[in-house]
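Sequence only, no structure available. Ideas?
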Amino acid sequence: MRATNSLCDKQSMSSTSKAQGLLALCLVLGSGVVSAEDTPPASGGSDALAEVVVTAEKRESSIEKVPISLSAVNQEQLDAQGIKSISDLARTVPGLNALAGVGLDTNISIRGILTNVGAPTTGVYINETPIASRYICFYCGFTSYPQLFDLERVEVLRGPQGTLFGAGSEGGTIRFITPAPSLHSYSGYLRAEVAATEHGALSHETGAAVGGPIIANTLGFRASLWTRTDGGYIDLVDRSTGVITNENSNSQKSYVGRLALTWKAANNLTVAPEFFWQKIDVADRATEWLDAGPLRSFNPLRAPSRDTQRLASLNVTYALASVTLKSITSYFNREQDRVDDYTYSDLAYYGGVATFPPELQNYRSRNYQTTKQDSWTQEFRVTSEGDGPLAVTAGLYFSSGSTSFQQAEIPSDFEGLTQFAYGDTVADVYGEGLVNGANYLEWQTQRDKEAALFGQIDYHITRQLKLSAGTRVASERFSFTDRHDGPEAGGPFSTAERSATSHPVTPRASLSYDQGEAMYYATVAKGFRQGGGNASLAGVSLCASDIQQIYGANAKDVPGTYAPDSVLSYELGAKSRLADGHATVSGSVYWVDWRNIQTNVGLPACGYNFTSNVGSAVSRGFDLQAAVRPLDGLTLSATVAYDDTYNARSLIVNGVYLIHKGTPLAIPDWSGTAGIGYERLLGADLQGYGRVDYQYQSAYTRGYIPGDLAFDAPINDVGASKYASVRLGVRYLGADISLFANNVFNAHPNLGLTQDLLGFGNLRQETLRPRTVGITGTYRF
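Reply:
I predicted one. Tokens follow.
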């Protein structure tokens, strides 16, 4: 590293000719990824890259001194790159993938550890409160991420964080950190935007945040309110006539409000209550039918959804000379209501047809779903302060919550469909008629409780060598209730209850060496997530053959529960700040063993799913990030991540391959970004700037190969994704006006395919929003 520094120090970079000649060499010698945390602040004014302070270890530290593979991005950087959603964020952060799901469902993975069933594998926090949701059933209960407005920063921690952040942080943790109220000065942030999408409707937003002292040095506040409308770009088309029945059907409206207070009750006592509210209304899914043409859908009905979340928290901090005591009390409430169009899936499922037969031309079917999440969390934490060789973080954590789900499918003419399929009445075929017009009714509730003791000790063996070691010991319990009714659910009302307990221990140990301009570390860490329960399929006659194929001729049902799973991660990493702050480089290599995996098992004949602990997997790869500022105002950045995640052994039950050894998980192998930003003074207090960003994600599969039970060739492949954006603007004092273009090349990749049932066609896919151009205005004071 010293040889690299001698070439890339400030003196070597002092001339333009040298800078241009050495830039490529510096990038190669310190190749890495340019992370968002290393880009300069939007206001410019310094020829060095900004240094970032994070709280990834529940204490403030420079990002370059934390022995964790970590990225952080602040609000100015979010604005500069036009990042509005978790999917946008994932395109810029190495090792973070946002995979397209159903409706609002964005499936997040870090380092290949992902799930679409069971407990979450990525911890998601707003400040100190966990908000990640359990998949109580297949594609219901997914996590809803905060909209990205008025944030201090977002931190993405790669690798298991079970010691300090508990269950569910197997792959890593994402933390959305909001600005704290100031007791000393006023500040504000205003943002407005309008944009046009090719083949779509206008989008627009307005938002404002303001804060400052109510009573100087004693009481302060921060309040924000924001709304955004994303114009739709998918047209619903009548399949028989080709006439557009609903233009730009998939519009979305988002609303966010926040109020936070800080009260300095005494010199060493601070009380900070906060309330956060968010609502997202989606008019229809952003799904196109391949045989309908680009950005068109043959769905006869819209599939709207509404997602509302509320978070109330109270932080009490008591600071002494050598320790800080903190209490964090939180309540999180979330409700999602959505309607799915089951018309074509019913025709395939019951009638064995892919299109409308003449006698069912007017058949329609809606599935109504409601998912509710309530959770209380309490953490007591003590953190040592001071400059001595020993630092301690320890605490107690308690949580109690429930996730409930109910659904009702209400078809327009189930009698007609049953007559078409079986030639008889609903009551004669199923032994029960419709229940309040529904052919399928379901209620599920899962309750989770946890108590944990955690701690981490950081000890400086020498001034340069530090040992960090900690563990978390927890006691967790879940109970699960499942109730069904209706002819499709297997006949008259039935109920099932399950419960289980677990006592996970999640240790972490890290050894780091800090030589000033560079820090090297090695980490071993464990991650964990809770088990859960399955709905009974014993009464669903069409599933009997699948269940017997897997579990034997006498099998009647799928397993009632599934067990916890865990990861053990090994990581080597390095971080450096070179050339007097003009270049930053960080990177890590890792190997993760994932055992007893909670996996969705699809039943091809009936289309249902259940969760089982299926085998084990290995995730291995690296992530690199680097930034260089060779000239005042010019910033070059790049990231790259490689992830090879595959099943470590075959799982065979009664001769049936559920999973083959070596089958890759549903994760792209490669992802990367490149960015160029330039700022220049145009006059007194007037600054011009421009930025170009390019992101790439390689193609991958759904995680199955021929011979696996759930392999479905037409929908198995997911395409590569390329995304480019450009922004040009000017700043005058606190005002900023910019023109932008997103998805510049109007890329239209396959981000995920679905069909009604195995072999029935009607292929649908998710894709990127088409090229969008617009203007953004912000003002900061």
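Residues 522 and 572 are 5 Å apart (CA to CA).
Hope that gets you unstuck.
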